Structure formats: structure tokens, C-alpha cells
Amino acid sequence: LVRQPCKAWHLNFLLLCLFSICSYLAVPQPPTITKQSVKDYIVDPRDNIRIECEAKGNPVPSFTWTRNGKFFNVAKDSRVTMIRRSGTLVIDFRRGGRPEDYEGEYQCSARNDYGTAISSKINLQVSKSSLWPKENLEPVTVQQGSPLILQCNPPPGLPPPVIFWMSSSMLPITQDKRVSQGLNGDLYFSNVKVEDMYTDYSCNARFHFTHTIQQKNPFTLKVLTTRGIAEQIPSFMSPTGTSSSKMVLRGEDLYLECIASGVPTPNIMWFKKGGELPSKKTKFENYNKTLRIVAVSEEDSGEYFCLALNKMGSIRHTISVRVKAAPYWLAKPSNLVLSPGEDGKLECQANGSPKPTIQWLVNGEPIESAPVNPSRAVTGDTIIFRDAQIGSSAVYQCNASNEHGYLLANAFVSILDVAPRMLAPRNQLIKVTVNNRIRLDCPFFGSPIPTLRWFKNGQGSNLDGGNYRAFDNGSLDILRTRKDDQGIYTCVATNILGKAENQVRLEIKDRTRIVKAPESLIVKTGSAARLDCKINYDPTLKLTVTWLKDNQSLYTGYRMKKDEESLTIHSVLEKDEGTYTCIASTEVDSDSANATLTVLVPSSISTSSLTPPKERPDPPRDLELTDPADRSIILTWIPGDDNNSPITVYIINGEERQFYPGTWHNHSSYPGSVNSVKLDLDPYISYRFRVTAVNDVGAGNPSQPSEQYQTSGAAPEINPSNVQGRGTKRNNMEIAWLPLNKNQENGPNMRYIVMWRQRDSSEDWSNTTVRYHRHVVSPTPTFVPYEIKVQSENDFGRGPEPDIIIGYSGEDCLDPKAPPTLTRIRILNSTAVEVYWTPVPRDTINGLLREYRAYFWRESSLLKNLWVSSSRRHVSFTSSRPRGIVSRLVPYSNYKLQMVVVNGRGEGPRSEIKELTTPEGVPGPPRFLRIRQPNQETMVLDWGHPEHPNGIITGYTLKYQTVNGTRVGRLKAENFSPNQTTFTLQRADPITRYKFYLSAKTQVGSGEQIIEESPYSKNEVMPTAEQRTLCTFLFPWFSALCDYDSVLLYTVTYVTLFVPTLPATTARATTAATTASTTTTTTETVLPAVTKKPRTTTSNKKSSDVTPVRQKIWNVTASPNSNWANITWMHSLEQETEFVVEYINSNNTVKSVPAKAKTAFVHLADLNPGMVYRVRVYSQEYNTITSDFVTFATSSAYTKNQVDIATQGWFIGLMCAIALLVLILLIVCFIKRSRGGKYPVREKKDTQLEPEEHKEDGSFDYSDEDNKPLQGSQTSLDGTIKQQESDDSLVDYGEGGDGQFNEDGSFIGQYTVKKDKEETEGNESSEATSPVNAIYSLA
Asked: Which of 41, 609, 736, 841 has the lowest CB atom count within 10 Å?
């Protein structure tokens, strides 16, 4: 605390003493009211009445009460008792009596030798719930389409009842824009419909204290129907007329209501004359029929009007709102402590509407009738004390009142004359390490305020300056400790009445440091590992060395040896791998270091066929609870079978049946070598436990639950967290916190003691006890810091002393006379400007400065006939610099801009409006670019003007180039005038495709481009990479044609017709057709070939042979088609596991699909034909459990060629190639004929001939060396050739007939081969080799 000229330090320090240790020092203190009931106190007639009044002082004050302004003799009424050492009254009705007899106005007085404090006047009222008067209601007859009001007229109640409408069958009445309940409880029908008479309507009143519901006799409706309902202009049902008025008090919520009739049902809109509705405080309720403004203030006064409109017309009603105010504090009087001869003052400033009257009282009596005090002078709202003297202590009351209410505040003036006294324990010992900052405290008390000095070792001058810094509150800071700072420090407090002293012994210790940290090691299983941790520390302190493994406490079993300098692990196991941390600590400081231990597991020959399978362990059994204590218990169990894998960990699950029945949570875990553990428990909880064993395979099933054990209760060990204090209104502060959860309460009837007081003031702590997680303090001054404490309490006691949190009361509106001033606007570019302003004075903010906000809107464009949006936008500036950049402006436009300052209550007054003009910029992209192909020779392009020209368009630039597959041509450019929006391009050929880049330009430059490619014709399909590869392989001299889909279609046809068997170098290609399948075991990437029959590529191992080791998901299989794929997989996870199937196409677009573990199947739809995909499966809960990526390709979607291919150049070249190939085949045939060879032919007879036997028809079998079976076939017993691999031949393209040769080797029919079941079984089928195979046989 710093000493101020007005002796604020003196006052604050003395108040601190008075409120904390006055009873210990026996210092006189006038009474202070600490707790009282609310002013308007409504009680439940079924309960006893308790009127609270608590106060403190020295001596302890006595209490008296007045009732209705007269002395209330508590002793004469047997039902009334006053709590001992308290003024709280308890009125007991257990032995009879009527609570209504005790209604009235009560006031408490707390009195001791130094003054009298009084409470506010407490208006005690008993809750009432009257009965509904009995009445017989006739059916209400109404014309269809007419308005109707069903009146409720509820019985009076205290507090007023809550009204709602229901049918007699207790179903709520459906409310909407047409039918709704008004603020007065009546039910309004804007227009009646026939369906309204299908139910009845009963008004219900719910009373708060008795929790009873009173029901009125129901209304029944009789609706007279007509042929047609005439449409009606709106008319107001409530309020009536064209205008009305409303008065509301400051801080309350304002409700304005407008309900209108009409056909169709009118809509309601709200407006405020001369301004806008306060957006942050405005709420529209009851289908827009009610306007609610929360926490109204004086600026909310004015005229509001509601507008009811339908298609027939509109009508409006004006409501004049006047905001008045009950008194509220501007400066609440604070307690004043003076020394004899000192001066001081009490201030009491309040405001309201009308202006409140200030009245001063002394010890509960008007100051005018109090004894004359020559040192006191009253001037309006201030009392000035000059040359105060002993004996003039008293309690002063300030009463601020107007017609809407009053405020009462107590503030005592205490005149003290006390010699210095020390408040801290004597001869304290403080230990600290070198090179640290330390503070020595020496709290003291005295009046007049003593002066304090520090000395070291009882000699030398006062310590202040250099390495020392002394404070007026008695503290001494040593900025950086050294060894020679060790010693005894003495603080001496002195005033005119004497002196007092205290001593603090300071010891300077060496710092604790790890001089040799552990190093990371890589060791094999079975070996030893040593982790060093050598420490230097002060020998006068006790050293503690702690080891952690993976940030958890290390359990040192028989294999581990720990000392002060190392940790040794013998017979290292794989589970010992991890990060080890050494922590060296003393009572003064600590140090830590860590290292990583990596364990290598030697590989061994797989003996899976000999080793029994490993499985998860069986659950433990026979759980037993022993040695029960208040906070712990021993749990013992018998381990289950480990199933060939040693148990590594036991997991203890706990169930807190009292608060969370049926929910099991992980309580703790222990090594697999133990079966009896001590469990630490929380108080006042009913526990059950179960044990789960874990081995390398996984966690087994949990054991059966143990018996139940209930721990005893205790006081809370912690206080609520996240304590905050902030104002929700300008005159309050809401204290909120995060309450304790159930297992932290430690006992029944959890509650919270909330304490608060203004920071740096002489006030005592105000407090209240609540059971919820918030409390509102009201009234408060505007934006004042408060010290806040929240302490937990249950039936076993209170929690620890809470920390002090600083909060702030509510903020007020900014001063309307102090807006920010815009000084300059600097144009940065076409879309941004920099604004400069003059900050507002700090004293006009009335709260915390949140930001400066710049509002800007586009007024018009510099281009004619261009519509602009004038919507307001804003940008916020939180920097302390009075300038900022406003961006996202539209170029070539007129803007308006103004500044406003913002605090927690909202925006303040706005600055004057400045105008600015943004320069021209580059335009946006054209609205569209369309490409049409009216024929095969031309393309027609047309485009739209840019949506955002950002200036005057000076022209367009069109760039284009040819695109043939992956090859692009030279870029060409065309420039157009600003009015031209079409262009015709002559195509070089009907196949070439084009890519176009179009941009608009202004004088500044070209804008963003719009890019389009010429569309495919109807007969074109985009070729895939596999198709291009196959085409280039077959036709290297026509590779340029392989970028067009039509060529590929004919390539596929060619391969099918003439190349049924590829060469050996390509025969290993994996088939990819309509359906292909890929699994995780496929490792070879090969060139795909196109065949007629789909085949599925599967793993070369059975699924039972590929069980993964330490892998949870495997055997991911993809079965694709042209636009879909089926994904399956295997896993070892739980059946409730949720999977995610993620697939990525060749454009790196990532998509995912959820799946369930029970199905292990997903159907991927909407895939692109001819595209390569990568797919994987992973667990949604643990995304580290994932399969490897699997690659598959969808097949191409072929379409028939609809154009005339006979005139195409590529077709002519293809036909020439085919003709050349046929010619070569014929030449080969003639060569074979000239050599005397003959193709083997099938003999149609049942008897088997010898190899060289002549046949009856003159033919013979040729069996010399040249007539060996061709590659890929085998000879049967009768000399025929059997096809071995390919099932494809020319027979599939022939038109029937028996294919055979005559004697001269020529064709006598179309070559066909028919297979049937009998020939296959008899080993008699034969098939001629294809011409291509004949070619290869010549090699």
C-alpha cells in the first residue's frame, strides 16, 4: 500500500486490522451488519418464519427489533425466539398460530458501546393462493373468421400465479401466430376457425410456494360457419386505440405487447421512433407479438410502435415508454478509521428518477436530533470530520429515497489511539536458494499509523535501496539472494505511543542440480540397464529422489535397484521400454532429467506350429475386501488362467453406486505379478470393484463385482474452481463458479459460502450461503473491482481457505458526449484504406475498453446503373494504436465510414460520418463462359460481363490452346472490345480439344481468369492410363492416336479378335475388366490386359494363413466395377467397434464411409470409371489401428461410337495394319503347305488309328518333327491338340459351321471350335492354334 495525502493507506490498513484480528487485539469496533433478509420477504405459510440479521463488532453487539415502526418485544411472544449471539428471529408455528398475524415491516438494530447499525426495512408477507370463484360458463358463440378473447381473470396471489391454458383433458392448447396468450393471461384468437371448437379451453393458475394449480371451468366454442370468409384489415385487440403509455423502472425488463385480429392473420413488426431497437437487449416473443427489452436504462425511453399488416392493409399503435429509476449508488459510504486529530469525510452519492433525497442518521437516529459534535459538519451528501477526537466513534446511516424505493447503507467512524503491534508470528524461519527473489513480510498495526524500518543482524542503517526494496505495508523484497544475505532481519514499527519489533531468520541454500543426467540406452532383453542420476544439493537439506516411467510413478520390483545416484534394471523385459524421469527435490527446490530406454527383442525361428495359441487371459475370481479404513481398503483376488501369455497388468475398475450406478471407471492399475493391493478411496462414496487382467494379446473379461463398501464422510478437500465475478447489469455483479462433482463433495448437503468486498476498501467481507453455482450481488457501484472468495461446505465441515479472486461489477454505458474523432483516411489501394482517430478519454468509458469499431457501407458505385448493397459492415481494432486498416472494400465505389468505441455494455456514441472513394481495380472473372459445338468444324464461345467490374471494362482477353490427352499446344491469344461477348473458333480437326482462359481488364490490368475446356462429344469417353499403355504397346507407330477413346475401343476389339494370347513377357499381366479384386497380400504391380471375362485376383494364401501378428485389421479386399466397389476385410477387434473406410482417387481427393464391425463390408458408390483408387480401413476410436493401403482400379465405361468412322484417318490406318497382318498370316500358311506340313484335324470316327495308318478317305496323320504341338497346347492320345490356357478364339466371332482344312491347307469353312462336356471328359477336344501362335512357332 502506498501512502496518499488523504491518508487512504492509513484507513485501508486500519480497516484490514479491524476486520481480521480485532477480537485478538481487543481493538474497539462499532457494529457492522453482515447479513440480513431481503427487503420484500415473502414466506411460505407452511414453514416457520426466519428473519435474518447478523452483525459483528467489538464488544459483540446486542440486537433489538422494531415492527411497523414500534419496538417489538421478542421476550413477550412465546412463538418468537432470537438465535444466541445473533439477531435472527425464528417464529415457530408448530404449536399453533397464524403466519398472517406476523405480517408487517421489520427492522433490526445492532448496538454496542461504539454505535448502532440498522438493517434495511424488511417487508414480511405471507404467500397467498386464492381459490377461483365458482361460475357457470355458457358456450361462446362466434362467427367463423371473427376475433375472440377468452378472459382468464385469475384469483389474486402473492406472488402472482403463473398462467397457462389447457383443455379439460389436460392437453396444452397449441399456440401460434393466430392463437396466443397475452401478458394478462387472456387467450386471443386473431380469427376463429372451425377446428377451434373441437376442444375446450381452461385457464390454469400455478402458485409458487404451494405448488398448486387452480383450474377454471372450461370455455366451449360454437363456431358459426359461412360459405366464404371475408378477408379483413388488421385491428388491434390489445392494446386498444392508436396510442398508449408505459412506465418501467431502470434495470427491469420492459414488455410491450400488440395483438391484432384480421384475415389472413396479420404479422407484427416493431420499431422505435428516431432510432433503432437496442439489438443486444431486444427479444421478440410470443410470435413477435411481445417486444422485450432486458435491463432497461434511461436511453431506452421514447416512443415505440407496432405495425400489424396483412395483404388487406396495415395498422399501427404507438406506445410511449418512460423509464424511471429507484435510487442506485454512485458512491456508497465506506467505513472510516481515524487517529485522534485527523480529518476525514463520509460521502453518500446516489442517483435515480426522480432525484433521490439524501438523509443522514447517526446510530439509527436522524442526525438533526443527535448530540452536537463540533468536529462534524454535514453538507448535503457529505459529512466532513475535522480534528476527530477519542469518544466520537459512531455508526452513520445514509438513506437515499424517492417514490420508487430507497437505499440504506451503514458506515462507521472509529477513532483509535493504539500503540504499534506486530501481527505476524515471531521469529519466523525462511529458507531460499541463491539467485532467487524473496519477500519478507512484517504486518503491523497502530494508530496513528506507525513508521516501519528494517535492519539486518541488529545493526546498520535502514534497509532500502540497491538489492532491497521496502514497502509501506511492512514487506521487504530482496531482489536477488546471495550467500551473504543470510542472517536475522528485524522490522521495527514506531508511532508516538511506542514501538514494536519482530524478527525473521533467512537461510540461503545451494540449489539442487542434476550434474549427471541419465542417458538414453538401447539394450537387449535379459541384460541389465543402468540409468545414472548424480545430484548436487545443499547438505543441510534432506534430498528425495523419485523415478517416473512414462510420467507415472515407477513401481520398483525385485528386478530394480534404486539409490541416490542411479537406477539399475536387471533382466530387462520388453515391457521395461519407455521414458524414465529422475526427480531430485528438497523442501526448497527441485530438478529433473529424463532418458529413453529402448529394448531389442531378438528374432527367433517361428514355432507357431508347435507353440499353443496365445489368447486373452481369463477373468480373476474370488474378490475379497479386507482391512477397511476411512479412506482405503485392501482388495485381494485369485488370478485366472493367462492362456499362454503372461499377465502384464491388472486394471481395477470401480463403481460409485451412490452417484453413478452401473458406470464403471478405471480406478487404478497394477503389475501382473501382484494380486493384493491397497486402494485409496474418496469419502462418503459407496464402492464396488472388479478386476481385469491384461496380457500381450489384449484385455480379458472383467471379474465378477466385489461386495459393496461405504466410506465415511469428511469435509470438502477442495473449493470450487473457475470462480469469476462480472456484472450482468450496471449495478450488479454475478459471482459464478464450477461446482464440485459428486465424488468431490465428501458428504451430504453440499453448499457454498460466497464472500465478497470491494478491493482496497475498508469494508468487511459480505457473505451468503447458496446451494447453486452462482450468486448475484446487487446493488453495486459501476465497474468496481471486488475481492471474491467461494468456500465449499457440507455437513462434516468447511473446505480449505479459498483463494481471493478479483472480479468486477457491471459496466455502464459510455459517455454520450465523448465520441471518437476521425482525423484522417488514407487510401492504400483499391480495396483497403487506413483510418486514423482520436481516442476517447479514459474517464468516459465507464468500464473496460473492448475495442474501437469502424462501421462502413457502400453508398454507390462510380459506374452508372449498377446496383449496390448498402448493408453495414464493421471491423474491430483492439490495438492501443489509434489507427487501423479497413479492407474488403469494393473498388471504384463511394463509401461512408464512422467510428464508435465499445465497452462491455455495448457501443458508445458514434463519430461524424466521413466519405471516401476507392480507386479503380482489376475486374472479377466473367460471369460465365459457355462453349458450344454446332458441328465438327467450329466452336462458338459466349460469355457474360463480370459480376464485379471494379471499374470501367476496357476489353477482354481470350487465350486458348489445344489439349490432346497429356499434351498441350501453343498458347494463342485474342483481344476483344468491351461490348463483344461471343467468338467463333474454326477447329483444325474434329478430334482436337481445346482449353480456354478468359479474363476481363480495366485500365489497372487484367482480372481473374475463368477457365473452361471444350466438352467431349457424345461418342467420346475419356481414356484411362491403362488403356493408353495397352494401345501404345500394340501400336507404337500410331501412339499419337492413343489419346482418343475411339481408337482404344477398336484397340480392345483388335486384342480380343486377334491376340487371344500375349507374348510371354506380357502374359503375366493381371486382368482388369468389369470386376477386379485386390487384397493386401498382392505385392506385384503388372500391366492390365483387357479380356472378355472378368476374373478376381485373390491372395495366394488362405485367410487362415495370414493371421496378423500385432495387427488388428488385415486382408482388405476390393472388388470394383466401373462406378462402384465392394470392400471387405478381417479384424480382431470387438463386435461393437466402428470402422472408417477411407479411399483416395488419383486426384488425391479423400473420402470416407463409416462401417460396423459386425458386417466388415462396405459398398462404395459413385466412383469414377477408369480411375485408380487407394483404400484403407481403420478404427474410428483408435485411428492408429489401421490396415495398409490397397490399390484398385475401376473399369472403363465404354460407349458405342456413333460417328461415321469410315472417313476417319485413324480408322483407315488401323485397317491397313490389320490387312498387313492378315497378309503375313497367309504367307505363313503357304510356307507350311510348301514344306509338306498339314494341320492336325479331328477325325470323326470311333476307332483309334495308329500314328501313320492310312485312312479310308485318303487323309493321313503327319507326325514328323515339324508337326509338334504349338506353344500353349498339348497333344491327346488321338493326335489332337488341346488348348491349355486361353479359352478365347475366333470361334466366338464366327457365324457357325465346322472349321477345318482341306488337303491343300486352305479353309473349307469358317474356323470354329465348339467345346462340349462329352469331348472334355473323353479327352477328345481339339482346337487349332491361332494365326498369332503360328507366327510365334516359327521363331
From this structure: 609
